[in-house]
Design brief:
The protein is α/β, with parallel strands linked by helices. The chain has a single domain, classed as Rossmann fold (3-Layer(aba) Sandwich). It is 40% helix and 23% strand. The strands form two sheets. The chain has a five-stranded parallel β-sheet with strand order 2-1-3-4-5, with helices on both faces. A two-stranded antiparallel ribbon has the order 6-7. α1 links the parallel β1 and β2. α1 packs across α6. The chain is globular and about 50 Å long. The two termini are 20 Å apart. It comes from Streptomyces cylindrosporus. Pfam families: FMN_red. This is NAD(P)H-dependent oxidoreductase.
Length: 193
């Protein structure tokens, strides 16, 4: 079975990402055979600002929290990043988590589900650049969720109800299928590493 980690890229109280990540996992389980999907919530790892004395590429992790994160990332064949867009980029907590480890990301595939005023498009573009440096192959298809079209928001200080448009499930399924296919295609590289 191909294992895909769904990385919930925000830890902010009242975040919308939890409902989105659960939707990704549900659609994946229902529509994409041959793969298992598991949500990795950055809030569960409680990573501080990068505090390892050696560069991550050396793989000499001295902190228990880093070792726990490295083990989690190493256990997956690919990833789906669920990210909001903060100030035209990714949340700091997500960038920090990406920077903590290196080899554990290599030769894996990734897809994206962004959300925000512009569907998280700029956050996704930044993630593509970051992940290329970590040797992660990113698929072309992506899901962009609009705060106005895919969420019912009655109070701007609350996350509102996640109500994705009908077309979003098909876009998500396509992206998940591509991510799983690429993760499977990259398996010989991971095994040879």
């Amino acid at each position: 079975m191909t294992k895909i980690g769904i990385i919930l890229g925000s830890t902010r109280p009242g975040r919308r990402g939890q409902a989105v990540a659960e939707w990704v996992a549900k659609v994946g389980a229902e529509q994409v055979p041959g793969a298992v999907f598991e949500v990795l919530d950055l809030a569960d790892f409680n990573l501080p600002i990068l505090d390892e004395p050696q560069p991550p590429a050396f793989g000499k992790y001295s902190k228990e929290h880093t070792q726990k994160w490295a083990e989690a990332i190493d256990g997956f064949d690919g990833f789906v990043f669920v990210t909001p867009e903060y100030n035209r980029s990714v949340p700091g907590v997500l960038k920090n988590a990406l920077d903590f480890v290196y080899n554990e990301w290599n030769n894996k595939a990734a897809g994206f589900v962004g959300y925000g005023l512009q569907g998280g498009a700029r956050a996704i573009e930044h993630l593509r650049l970051i992940l290329s440096e970590l040797k992660v192959a990113t698929v072309r298809s992506q899901v962009g969720l609009s705060l106005f079209g895919d969420f019912t928001i009655t109070n701007p200080t609350e996350p509102g109800e996640f109500t994705p448009g009908a077309h979003q499930a098909q876009t998500l399924t396509t992206m998940l299928e591509e991510t799983v296919s690429w993760a499977q295609a990259l398996k010989p590289l991971r095994e040879g590493a």
